[in-house]
Amino acid sequence: MAYRVYNELDYGIPVYDYNEGFPPAVSPTRLGCLRVKDDEKRLETIRVLPQLVDKLYYRATISFVMVYDKF
């Protein structure tokens, strides 16, 4: 799941103006997008030792810095 989130950050996060209203009555205007700043995205996997748990679980930490990009 972490890899999916990590890869989706490349597409940016849209920013909408919800002061206009909220669906279904009105679709908000898209104001811009949050984009990952160059080289500011990291994924670190954290392995849990098999001796500590019954199942082998993996955890991950995603760190990123985003900037607002107005169209």
What keywords describe this structure?
71 residues; mainly beta; 3-stranded antiparallel sheet; 1 helix; 52% strand
Helix content: under 10%
The whole-angstrom Rg is: 18 Å
The number of helical elements comes to 1
Main beta-sheet strand count, sense and barrel state: 3 strands, antiparallel
| Strand arrangement across the biggest beta sheet | 1-2-3
Average pLDDT for all residues:
84
SSE order, as H and E? HEEE
The percentage of residues in β strands lies in over 45%
Number of strands: 3
Low-confidence stretches: none
What global shape is seen?
elongated
**Class derived from helix and strand content:** mainly beta
Quaternary state of the chains:
single chain
What is the count of structural domains? 1
Distance between the termini: 30 Å
Q: How would you describe the overall organization of this protein?
A:
By secondary structure, the protein is mainly β. The protein has one domain (2-70). It has 1 helix and 3 strands, in the order H-E-E-E. It has a 3-stranded antiparallel beta sheet. The longest helix is centred in the N-terminal third of the chain and has 7 residues, at 2-8. The chain is elongated. The two termini are 30 Å apart.
